[in-house]
Amino acid sequence: MVKKILFIRRDNIGDLVCTTPAIHAVRNHYPDARIGILVNTYNVDAIRNNPDINEIYTYEKAKHAPEKNKISVWLNNLKVLHKIRKEKYDAAIGCGSYSPRLARYTFITGAKKRIGYLKKGMKSKFYNMPLYEPEEILHEAEKTFNLLSCLGINGAPQQLRIFPSGDEVRKVQDILNASGFSKEKYLIAFHISSRRPENRWPAEKFMELGKLILDRYNAAILLLWSPGSEKNIYHPGDDEKAEFIKNSLKPKPIACKTTKLGELISALSLSSLVVCCDGGAMHIAAALQKPIVTVWGSTNPKSWAPWGTRHVILTDGKDASNVSVNDVFAAISTMLG
């Protein structure tokens, strides 16, 4: 009998959000089970307040804390893994494509059943219930969900799930109120950041798009971005890009510098429509059931399209900067009716 199940999701925000349908399916199949999840400090806010999860274990990647001594970071992470081993989980699921480190983490948990993907033809002492990577291209939500077959759960993933904090929603609402925002207006969120350079849309194009929207619609623009200077080698952000867009539009966008992931989730939850690049914010918006217009570079839509919500993907398959402002505006007009 499976009574304790651990998910391991040690990568990026979007990957973790795409895991939430699998977590929910386990909760429905094993309603009395204790469900834990091991995540990192960077993505943990994406699963806070999730009623399907009993225990959240958080470890820190040394690259996310350059100001800390690496040895102290590693020691703290060992304490987290020791705590997990003491729980004696019945099953641990290493979510994501095969990686040696993910396989080792799954093994170290000490779980009786250790589930994860291997590349075709591989063998591993770390997984005792492995699956081979699917040959066909699947969406990340589907690929993660398929790992549940080892627990007797089959079918298709449902909606992504995310739960904004009430306190943080009120903080963003206060920012909107202070700006004079009227609820009769559309609130169109621009999230202007993306981790991969080829997925970034230029500031000048966001500015031109903003002018078209403000001329045509009774709308306000909520400007969101990854905080920090583009010159920061450890955590580069888009402060300069946001400042350019803010100062180029009249009326000015409502600039909301979200220093925590929970704040970004709350800000997106209040929007009418989200315009963004490929990245974690897009998957958060999908989990919030927001209509999305997204500008892409070379990412494969079959794997990473917004799951379970109305969306338009605009891409030439190579570089987001090649997508025209007029095409994005036409997609927004279709969404708004």
What's the average pLDDT?
A: 95
Number of helices: 12
CATH superfamily of the largest domain: Glycogen Phosphorylase B
Tally of discrete structural domains = 2
Globally, the shape reads globular
CATH architecture of the largest domain: 3-Layer(aba) Sandwich
* Strand order in space, largest sheet: 3-2-1-4-5-6
Characterize the main sheet. Answer: 6 strands, parallel
Task: Give the topology, please.
Elements: E1 4-8, H1 13-17, H2 20-29, E2 34-40, E3 55-59, H3 70-87, E4 91-94, H4 100-108, E5 113-118, E6 129-132, H5 140-146, H6 166-179, E7 186-191, H7 203-216, E8 219-224, H8 239-248, E9 254-255, H9 261-269, E10 273-277, H10 280-287, E11 292-295, H11 301-304, E12 311-314, H12 325-336
Parallel strand pairs: 1-2, 1-4, 2-3, 4-5, 5-6, 7-8, 7-10, 8-9, 10-11, 11-12
Structure description:
The protein has 337 residues and is α/β, with parallel strands linked by helices. It has two domains: 4-151, 3-Layer(aba) Sandwich (Rossmann fold), CATH 3.40.50.2000; 166-336, 3-Layer(aba) Sandwich (Rossmann fold), CATH 3.40.50.2000. The protein has helices at 13-17, 20-29, 70-87, 100-108, 140-146, 166-179, 203-216, 239-248, 261-269, 280-287, 301-304, 325-336, and strands at 4-8, 34-40, 55-59, 91-94, 113-118, 129-132, 186-191, 219-224, 254-255, 273-277, 292-295, 311-314. The strands form two sheets. The protein has a six-stranded parallel β-sheet with strand order 3-2-1-4-5-6, with helices on both faces. Strands 9-8-7-10-11-12 form a six-stranded parallel β-sheet, with helices on both faces. Helix 2 (20-29) runs parallel beside helix 5 and helix 6 packs across helix 9. The longest helix is centred in the N-terminal third of the chain and has 18 residues, at 70-87.
